[in-house]
Amino acid sequence: MLLQCGNDDPGAGCVAGWLRAGTLTCLGELNEECLELCVAQAHAGAAPPLCAEIAHEWSALDAAGRRHAGGCLYLLLDAGFVRLASGRASGARQVGDAGAPGYAPWFTVPAAVPLAQAVFTFAWHLARCQASAARLLLGMPAASVQELSRNTLGQVRSLALRHPHWLRPRWTAQPGMWREFLAAAASGDPARLERARLRGQTLLAGETRLCAAGHPGGGRAAPGTPRTSPRVAEAHVRF
Fold first, then answer.
1. Do 165 and 113 form a contact (C-beta atoms < 8 A)?
2. Could you tell me if 125 and 5 are in contact, meaning their C-beta atoms sit under 8 angstroms apart?
3. DSSP helix/strand/coil, 60
4. Residue 105: which pLDDT band, with cuts at 50, 70 and 90?
């Protein structure tokens, strides 16, 4: 995958005033690879129920439906980027070495390794030259963006090789979101697809805020933790 990334200054080739079209092209490619990874894991016979359901729905999509699903303005995979900041805080010599609970592997097939490298390389590229895009498209807390940008390309590749088990689909606590999202992609209805994408953006923004507040549970905060208002979250994801 050819990485294309502009700087933070908007230009004539930018989407939504500041985001370059090449960035979205790369994001769409990664999203399709993420969903193909679910298929590979399901075929391996050791997939969580949600992963198998995603694989079934994705496999049923035609080419247009797959483009619709991959074309949302955020990564459909949670790559565990919230852990980057914790690696620095623990005094680890290399970012991400410190362990943290709640990240049991979802993907055990060999294809998870090259995809992890692609995702982390894309994230590193955005973190270094378009930090705002890294936060919005990847759901990375600001501290994680800063930590990742300090690394060399070789260090980032090494990080991905050590931690492909960080990869998991988004919205694991809300399987209904996946059903809604993939059904909207299959329908080809622009309004329905936009509603599903916007809901996903709202959930991603809320999860990012919870992680930044010290609740790295992908939206599964401890009992009694106030949840982010959808209106507040939505304000953070609009371009």
1. no
2. yes
3. coil
4. confident
